[in-house]
Design a protein that fits this description.
2 domains; six-stranded antiparallel beta sheet; disordered C terminus; alpha+beta; single chain; Phosphatase 2c, domain 1; 11 helices; about 400 residues; about 30% strand; Beta-Lactamase
């Protein structure tokens, strides 16, 4: 049995809570590693939290100015020279583009680390998938992501999300919500098959638990309709009925819905509320307007009509909730379309997964020291398109 297979088997046979212990033992035995640590990205994407059991013995490390943070941001291995011939490899841990954290492995000898790097990078990939599976049976990894305590509403919202990033040959997605530890109403959802990508960007009304309950009802109603194979306009109508039946118009939810054909870039869209879309094409940022329709649940049995939309390879689409475009500065000036366009243009060289965090940092600077009084949601979609005759580009997510 070669050493990679031995490490992979150790991960696949370990108890969910013991993945790191099993991997550490395998890497010490098979690769001569001196130390092995796993760090998870926190919900706010500001630090990497160590995965360990109490009492915690390691401190969080910054996502912005640490060797592990460099590996996370670039999604490439980063080699740290520790002196005396020792090297620490920081390896990105991700699952289909969703960045989970960083695996740090200390080895004796720079040449040894170079020889081991390709295999260790594959092991980090296996670890990411095992962590996602293990989260069904243990709280360890979800607890490790918490720099602070989540509010109950935020707990509900994070559990509802599909992830924070996704990569396929045809597209790359990234998304982030703020305040990460106290969100309540905003949400995003996506799902892909071999031929289509469905994307929802929602802006829920209200605060706290009530906002989270409203969003949970609407998102699950949309998913139920989508998974039944129902067209996007009818998905909106059925979710509208579910929300109205429960709240009788007292509460409602804004949503921007897209159904993309992966082979052509053609999409059908339902715009039911306040989320906005800006497109970066050929260096120019412009706001895209759709036919405005009623939010879900405002009135009984609302009919929704889908309209056509088309994306081209190289397009970047940035979706924002009103907690972004309507945020006021200390002088009362709204962040607005012009500031958003500047932020999108200034982040044009970043990968899709990095863009939401970067835009939200600029938003924080605009808002100043005042605490956020609304959720802020940013979703970035980079459209690559499918080459002619490319056929089936992959399995569903």
């Amino acid at each position: 049995m070669n050493r990679f297979v031995a490490a992979e088997r150790a991960l696949r046979t370990a108890a969910p809570h013991a993945l790191l212990d099993a991997l550490r033992a395998a890497l010490l035995e098979q690769y001569g590693a001196e130390d092995v640590e796993l760090f998870m990205a926190d919900y706010g994407l500001t630090v990497l939290q160590p995965v360990s059991v109490l009492p915690h013995v390691l401190e969080p490390v910054s996502l912005y100015n640490s060797p592990a943070g460099r590996a996370f941001g670039s999604q490439r291995p980063y080699r740290e020279d520790l002196g005396e011939g020792r090297t620490r490899l920081h390896l990105p841990v991700s699952v289909r583009g969703d960045r989970v954290g960083v695996l740090s492995v200390t080895l004796d000898g720079g040449e040894v680390s170079r020889q081991c790097e390709p295999e260790l990078l594959e092991i980090a990939d296996v670890l990411g998938r095992e962590v996602v599976v293990a989260e069904r049976d243990t709280d360890l990894y979800l607890q490790a992501r918490r720099k602070d305590r989540l509010t109950l509403a935020a707990e509900m919202q994070w559990q509802l999300l599909p992830g924070c990033a996704c990569t396929r040959p045809e597209f790359a997605l990234g998304a982030q919500l703020e305040p990460a530890y106290a969100i309540f109403g905003d949400n995003f959802d996506w799902a892909a098959t071999a031929e289509r990508l469905t994307l929802y960007v929602t802006n829920g009304m209200g605060e706290g638990i009530e906002a989270a309950l409203l969003t949970n009802l609407a998102i699950n109603a949309l998913r139920n309709a989508r998974r039944a194979g129902i067209p996007i306009a009818d998905q909106a109508a059925l979710a509208d009925q579910a929300v109205y039946a429960h709240y009788r118009g007292r509460c409602y939810l804004s949503v921007l819905m897209f159904d993309f054909d992966l082979s052509t870039g053609r999409a059908v869209v339902v715009d039911a509320g306040s989320p906005q879309l800006l497109r970066l094409r050929g260096g120019t940022v412009e706001r895209i307007h759709f036919d405005a329709q009623l939010p879900l649940g405002m009135f009984e049995e609302t009919d929704y009509v889908a309209q056509d939309f088309h994306v081209e390879p190289g397009d970047r689409l940035v979706f924002v909730s009103d907690g972004v475009h309507a945020v006021a500065s200390p002088k009362g000036e709204a962040y607005g379309e012009a500031a958003l366009a500047r932020a999108i243009h200034s982040t044009r060289l970043l990968p899709a997964a990095e863009v939401p965090r970067a835009i939200l940092r600029e938003l924080t600077g605009h808002r100043g020291e005042a605490a956020a009084d609304d959720d802020a949601l940013v979703v970035c979609l980079d459209w690559r398109g499918r080459p002619a005759g490319g056929g089936d580009a992959g399995l569903s997510l």
